[in-house]
Specification:
With about 425 residues, the protein is of the alpha/beta class. It is built from 14 helices and 17 strands. Helix content is about 45%, strand content about 20%. Strand 3, helix 1 and strand 4 form a beta-alpha-beta unit. The longest helix has 19 residues. It binds iron/sulfur cluster. The site of iron/sulfur cluster has 14 residues, from helix 13.
Length: about 425
């Protein structure tokens, strides 16, 4: 169930139907002001809405005072074990305080922090992690780790409410993906505060991204979760932000920058698509526009499932085709495909429409039609998928069963953030 309550972290709304906020955490010593600001800027440039900095020492507070002023995005101070540091971080102007009420020295000290936060208008994130649950829940943790995690979280929520403090989001984090999914599902049924999602110690860029995509993606698809952090074992925190965006883009929860779609390739592939896709992906990183670019390994299916893409290429042995909006644009030699594609993208972005040379369009269309005709009976992965989809639709209509929705309805209704409000929704370029 989606959270009903909303908090405001330095101008970024979290919960209550706001777009899922992306956050990351600096990996520098916060006291090292220059290094920390460098990393915060990299995180912000990659698209993070929020950044969290560890504040384990007094000298970090000194740097924090400057960081909260200079940072382009709101700063969350991450505090453990020391409530005095939490008080100082609030005084330093942190936009949010993250603490674990279980390790801060008892309810009185949590109360002191809540009182100071309330006076300053500073929201909090209260969280529980598997591995650091209160002692009285250890037995339950052995029997039912999910119930133990949720109990710890709801006990902390009850404590905050007793303290008359309601300006917080809640996190339950576990190294186990199934436990993260199950506990957040259960928690979302028991409380209506915003939820912070993450998989603790997820791993390297490769394994951590996959675990996070499975765990967080499953919850987000159910409309559970209001802000996400991808934890990766890399010093380059901006990589965490990129992964977070790919998850949100895949679920169509938010839009940012280009979307690359590429066929998986098969035995019909006739050019070095690995290299081509890699090059296109790298070159697209410098674009802010939410254009969709498709790469097809062969023209056997025509433009097929990539017809909704703003631009695309499909190749054969010696030559390939550039297409836009589902229609051929021009045929070019294979080794010029990528450069020609980007020339078309750049020109179209500059003039706001796709320019067509009718002679070249006709030549490209004829080339494509010839390849389609030569392979009309081929059972390609795309044609098999289309047949399966048709059969499923026919069966659903015959039995009166509803087809699964393409995306969670509630999730689709989430508002887009300013920068991703979609001036480019639907067909992005007109034809000339
Ligand atoms: S048949 Fe499909 S998967 Fe195979 S190379 Fe062509 S477009 Fe790619």
């Amino acid at each position: 169930m989606a959270s009903k309550r909303q908090i405001d972290v330095g101008g970024v709304k979290i919960g209550g139907g706001a777009p899922v906020a992306v956050q990351s955490m600096t990996k520098t010593e916060t006291a090292d002001y220059e290094a920390t600001m460098l990393q915060i800027r990299a995180i912000a440039d990659a698209g993070a809405d929020l950044v969290r900095c560890a504040v384990p020492r007094d000298k970090d507070i000194d740097a924090l005072k400057r960081i909260v002023v200079e940072s382009p995005i709101p700063v969350i101070a991450d505090i453990h074990f020391n409530h005095t540091l939490a008080l100082k971080a609030i005084d330093a102007g942190a936009h949010c305080i993250r603490l674990n009420p279980g390790n801060i020295g008892g309810p009185e000290k949590v109360g002191e922090v809540a009182e100071r936060a309330k006076a300053a208008g500073t929201p909090m994130r209260i969280g529980v992690n598997s591995g650091s649950l209160p002692r009285h829940l250890h037995e339950l943790e052995r029997e039912n780790p999910v119930e133990a995690l949720v109990s710890a979280a709801t006990e902390f929520v009850a404590l905050m409410e007793r303290l008359d403090f309601y300006d917080f989001k809640v996190s339950i984090k576990s190294t186990s993906v199934p436990n993260t999914i199950a506990s957040n599902r259960l928690l979302s049924e028991r409380i209506d505060y915003p939820l912070h999602l993450g998989i603790t110690e997820a791993g390297t860029k490769w394994t951590g991204s996959l675990k996070s995509a499975v765990g967080l993606g499953t919850l987000l698809a159910d409309d559970i979760g209001d802000t996400i952090r991808i934890s990766l074992s890399t010093f380059h925190a901006e990589e965490e932000v990129k992964v977070a965006w790919e998850i949100l883009k895949a679920l169509k929860l938010r839009e940012r920058g280009p979307v690359l779609i590429a066929c998986p390739t098969c035995g019909r592939l006739q050019f070095d698509m690995d290299t081509v896709v890699q090059e296109i992906e790298t070159r697209l990183e410098s674009y802010d526009e939410p254009i969709e670019v498709a790469v097809l390994g062969c023209a056997v299916n025509g433009i097929g499932e990539a017809s909704h893409a703003d631009f695309g290429i499909t190749g054969a042995k010696n030559e390939g085709l550039i297409f836009a909006g589902g229609e051929p644009l021009k045929k070019v030699p294979q080794d010029e495909l990528v450069d020609a594609l980007f020339a078309e993208i750049d020109r179209s972005l500059k003039i706001g429409r796709v320019e067509r040379d009718e002679a070249k369009v006709a030549e490209g269309a004829a080339w494509l039609a010839k390849i389609e005709e030569e392979n009309v009976g081929e059972m390609t992965p795309e044609r098999m998928a289309a047949l399966e989809a048709k059969a499923a639709t026919e069966e659903a209509m015959a039995t009166g069963t509803a087809l699964p929705m393409a995306a969670p309805a509630a999730a689709r209704e989430r508002k887009k953030l300013d920068e991703s409000a979609s001036p480019t929704a639907g067909r992005r370029f007109t034809r000339a």
